[in-house]
Amino acid sequence: MIEMSKGFETPKTFEDLFGFYREYIKPVYSYCQTYSVLPQEALFEICAAWDHVARHYKPGKPEEEKYVVEKAFSHLKRSCLDIFKIALINAVDQLHEMKRNDLSFAIEGGITFEKKLMSLIKEIREKAEMARIKEGEDFGYGYETWWEMYIKCREVEKLYYDDRISWKNKSPATDEEWLKSKFQALLDEDRS
Questions:
Q1: Model pTM?
Q2: How confident is the model at residue 7, as a pLDDT?
Q3: 3 state DSSP class of 174
Q4: Can you spell out the DSSP letters for 33-78?
Q5: Distance CA 168, CA 145 (A)
Q6: Looking at residue 182, what is its pLDDT?
Q7: What's the CA gap between 53 and 72, in Å, rounded?
Q8: Most CB atoms closer than 10 Å: which of 26, 46, 47, 58?
Q9: Strand partners, 112
Q10: 9, 88, 130, 157 from 141: Cα distances, Å
Q11: Which ranges of the chain have pLDDT less than 50?
Q12: Nearest CA to 79 among 36, 50, 57, 121?
C-alpha cells in the first residue's frame, strides 16, 4: 500500500502506479459506477493516464517507465479529485431536493431531521474547502481530507436521501404524514 501522508512519493514503477489505482482510485471510481455515470472530466483524465502508459510500449521510441508512470499518476490523481467534487455536488443536490419537499419534521428524541442534516452538510462543506486549499500543496493530505468529505457525502445519501422514498414524486409539503410514515418504516426496518 502506498502511504498517503505528508511526504507522499510519486510512484516510479507500473506496480506502484497500479497499487495506487487499486487502493485510492478504484474505491471512488466505484461510486460513479453505482450511478452508471462517469463524469466526463474523470473519464478524460483516466484516458490520458492510459495514453501515457501506452507510450511506454510504443514501437521504436518507447518512453521511460519512470516518466510515463509520473505522468499517468498525475492524471489519475486529477480523476480522483474530480470524482470527489462530483460526490460533493451530488450531496448538495440531494439536500436541495429534500429542502424543496420541506423535510423539517422531527424524528425521534426531539432532534430534528433538518438540524442533523444541515450539520452534516456544514461538515461536508468545511472538509471540501479545506481539501481544495491543500490538494495542490500536499496531495496526500488533500486526498485524506477529500476522502473524509466523501464519506460524509455518502452519509447524506445513505442516512437521509434513501432511494426507497420517491422524492421526485412528492410535491413540496403536501403529504408530510406520508413522508413521516415512510421514514418511520425505514427506521423500523433498519432496527430489525
A1: 0.69
A2: 40
A3: coil
A4: HHTT---HHHHHHHHHHHHHHHHHT-SSSPPPHHHHHHHHHHHHHH
A5: 32
A6: 58
A7: 7
A8: 46
A9: 106
A10: 12, 18, 10, 25
A11: 1-7, 104-110, 167-175
A12: 50
* 142-176: pLDDT as tens digits: 888 999 999 999 888 887 776 555 544 444 444 45
Instruction: Give CA–CA dist 6/142, Å, rounded.
Output: 10
Q: For residue 155, count CB atoms less than 10 angstroms from its CB and return exposed for 0-12, middle for 13-18, buried for 19 or more.
A: middle
Query: Which residue ranges make up each domain of the chain?
Result: 14-163
Cβ pair 39, 82 in contact under 8 A: yes
**Reduced to 3 DSSP states, what percent helix, strand and coil does the chain have, rounded to the nearest 5?**
70, 0, 30
Query: Nine-digit cell at 71?
Result: 505522468
The separation between the first and the last C-alpha atoms of the chain, rounded to the nearest angstrom, is: 37
Yes or no: say if 76 and 67 are a contact pair by the CB < 8 Å rule.
no
CB 142 within 8 A of CB 135: yes
Contact (Cβ atoms closer than 8 angstroms) between residue 14 and residue 67: no
CA gap 163, 172 in Å, rounded? 17
What confidence score (pLDDT) does residue 128 get?
Answer: 92
pLDDT score at 69: 95
Query: CA 31, 35, 39, 44 torsion: positive or negative?
Result: positive
